[in-house]
Design a protein that fits this description.
The chain contains 3 helices and 4 strands; from the N terminus they run βαβαββα. By secondary structure, the chain is an alpha+beta fold. The protein has one domain: Translation Initiation Factor IF3 (2-Layer Sandwich), CATH 3.30.110.40.
């Protein structure tokens, strides 16, 4: 099982990115995180994630405007994996 679930919603029109991201987050298995790529800041997503007990971190992507990493609250394996990516000097 791969730890990363990649979801590119860059070319989709609202509300599809929001809906697909929430569905993909709900389907995460323990240890997995969602890497979501979007062309703009998904501002409506953040409160939905927080209300459903997900954590996230956003960074500027190299190929897209926004790269958002999402994992279940309390999932230390997923959080550690995301932190290793975010803090990697290769990125």
């Amino acid at each position: 099982m791969s730890l990363e679930v990649l979801l590119d919603v860059s070319d989709m029109a609202p509300p599809e990115p929001l809906e697909l991201t929430l569905d993909a987050a709900e389907a995460l298995e323990p240890g997995q995180y969602l890497r979501m790529l979007h062309r703009r800041d998904p501002c409506l997503l953040y409160s939905n994630l927080e209300n459903n007990h997900f954590q996230y971190i956003q960074r500027e992507g190299a190929t897209t405007a926004v790269e958002l990493f999402i994992w279940r609250e309390g999932d230390t394996e997923a959080k550690t994996a995301v932190n290793s990516i975010i803090n990697s000097p290769d990125l």
